[in-house]
Design a protein that fits this description.
Elements lengths: L8 E3 L11 E2 L2 E2 L1 E3 L1 E4 L2 E4 L5 H21 L5 H17 L2 H4 L4 H15 L10 H7 L5 H17 L19
Parallel strand pairs: 1-4
Antiparallel strand pairs: 2-3, 5-6
Helix pairs in contact: 1-2, 1-4
Length: about 170
């Protein structure tokens, strides 16, 4: 299979190189402001709002389908559906695009709020109580846990990444 130079694109990040043209195999690469690769949307400004919007929209779409087409709306059915169908969209590869702006974090958390409100018995209690009742934590705490697991894997050699990327790792005190 030959490399397709026509499908390659150039995403300019930073300042001072917006007008630069790059070639590969004699083909001038098209310039783009955002690109989707491996399921992630990367923008030239390196903000993750676009990816958060895509993940939230997909999660809300699936929650709407569950709400419309599932008649039995008890916790024992809704939570497994949410965990297997919706959560993967909200948590896919968050180590690469972890939201850091409040509006992005809230956008994703609203999806979880909406999912817990499907259950009639939980509609009239606070969000924190709904999470406890469903044995869930906030998405922010799940992202933190995922980051900690990834660091553990790197430091203990489970990932093929140089562990010296962490400052101070491997230094001995005098």
């Amino acid at each position: 299979m030959l490399f397709n130079f026509g499908k390659c694109k150039c995403l300019h990040t930073g300042h001072g190189n917006e007008d630069a043209q790059y070639t590969m195999g004699g083909t001038v690469l098209n310039t783009t402001l955002k690109e989707r690769d491996l399921g992630l949307t990367i923008s030239a400004d390196m903000k993750v709002s676009g990816q958060c919007g895509i993940a939230a929209a997909k999660g809300n779409q699936i929650i709407g389908l569950i709400r419309r087409y599932i008649a039995y709306k008890e916790k024992e059915l809704i939570m497994p559906l949410y965990k297997t169908i919706v959560m993967p969209h909200l948590e896919y590869c968050t180590q690469a695009w972890k939201p850091y702006r409040k509006k992005d974090i809230d956008m994703l958390e609203r999806v979880r709020r909406r999912a817990t409100q499907i259950i009639p018995k939980l509609r009239n209690i606070s969000y924190e109580m709904r999470l406890k009742e469903c044995v869930l934590t906030t998405l922010e705490s799940r992202r933190l846990r995922a980051d900690q697991i990834e660091v553990f894997k790197i430091l203990n050699g489970y990932e093929n990444i140089d562990r010296n990327i962490f400052h101070g790792q491997g230094r001995e005190k005098d």
